[in-house]
Amino acid sequence: MKAGIVGLPNVGKSTLFNALTSSKSAQAANYPFCTIEPNEGIVSVPDDRLRRISIYIVPKKLIPTALTLVDIAGIVKGASEGEGLGNKFLSHIREVDAILQVVRCFEDNDVVHVSGKVDPVSDIETIEIELMLADIQTLDNARKKAERTAKSGDKEAKLRLEIIQLCLDHLAKDEPLRKLTLDEASLKAISSFGLMTAKAVLYVANVDENDLEGKGPLVQQVRDFAAKVGAAVIPVCAKLESEIAELDEADRAEMLASSGLAEPALTVLAREAYRVLGLHSYFTAGEKEVRAWPIPIGATAPQAAGVIHTDFERGFIRAEVYTLADLETHKSEKEIRGAGKLRVEGKNYVMQDGDICHFLFSS
Fold it and tell me: Which residues of the chain, if any, have pLDDT below 70?
């Protein structure tokens, strides 16, 4: 699963990406970053439950889940028509699963705003319009092809044509597709289009060092807008976070304390991005490792087992499941089993966030 970091030029997008990818702290040893391409990286998702599990089941290592972030070059007005290499950059957005839109919420005369003034809602709307226009182009092209195929009586093409028209009608109201409710069959019919306004979005308010909690009027404008579209907002001072990421552990802790931060804002951002991607975690725990595994919310036990290895899903027999609360109460798996708290779950079990599991399967 990938999340794309999107924004207008000069909003702090690349500073944020670089901060996520350059941490030298001890925390970074547990939550590493590795480069895939110049503009793409994998960032691990901090989860304190790993540490809590390891108190009772002591492993050789802790392995968190990870998400892929893609730093997408600045989008400008007219991108849907090719401005600023817009078509190329928009194609990168089509390939991600969720959008992290960085919005400038600070004043700085030394950093020129592309529109001449700081107006976060206008920035959001500029990108939203470009994405909607691009989606309209994609759907118009797909409609022509579906119309030709539907004339032959192809049922799938007829369904696709209906859904395409439904999406176009929705976009004509200046509403992004993420606000259109579609059933599973309809989503599948248009899944190959990479429709950008159908993707979940998280607004990252890039604030200055005097407003780390994002209580200023600029961030409030973003919060008000996000509330209307059902999105979340995370305030981050990209400049400060990039400085924190470069520090050693002792200096890092001191700077966090002096800034009044319990943890880096990037940690909060990584966890929220994980949620926006529709993921949560289950755990496996043993002497070799305590590991968090990413699964889509709503995944069944066999699907969760398949994340470890496809053979586990094919040969799934049952799952033995307990919770972190059980472990903290009874102190060991043996005592959990003795207390009758170890649950045996079958193929229809829907995994819950934080489940600790053993999977039994046939080879």
Answer: 21-38, 74-89, 110-116
Name the pTM for this structure.
Answer: 0.84
Closest CA to 110 of 210, 195, 10, 232: 10
Using the 8-state DSSP alphabet, how is residue 351 labeled? P
Q: Could you give the CA distance from residue 190 to residue 271 in angstroms, rounded to a whole number?
A: 29
Cβ neighbour number for residue 119 with a 10 Å cutoff: 16
Give the β-pairing of 200-206 and 289-296: unpaired
Confidence (pLDDT) at 85: 45
- C-alpha distances (whole Å) from 3 to each of 62, 72, 86, 238, 318 are 24, 10, 19, 18, 33
pLDDT of residue 112: 59
Each residue's pLDDT tens digit, 339-361 = 999 999 999 999 999 999 999 99
123 vs 143: CA distance, rounded Å = 30
Do 96 and 43 meet the contact criterion of CB atoms below 8 Å apart? no
Return the SS3 of 237.
coil
Parallel/antiparallel/unpaired status of strands 316-322 and 356-361: antiparallel
Q: Give just the sign of the alpha carbon dihedral 88, 89, 90, 92.
A: positive
Task: Please check whether residue 237 is in contact with residue 57, taking contact to mean a CB–CB distance below 8 angstroms.
Answer: no
Sheet holding 232-236, edge to edge: 33-37, 40-44, 66-71, 2-6, 98-104, 200-206, 232-236
Cα 37 from Cα 209, distance rounded (Å) = 31
Residues composing the chain: 363
Contact between 106 and 214 under an 8 Å Cβ cutoff? The reply is no
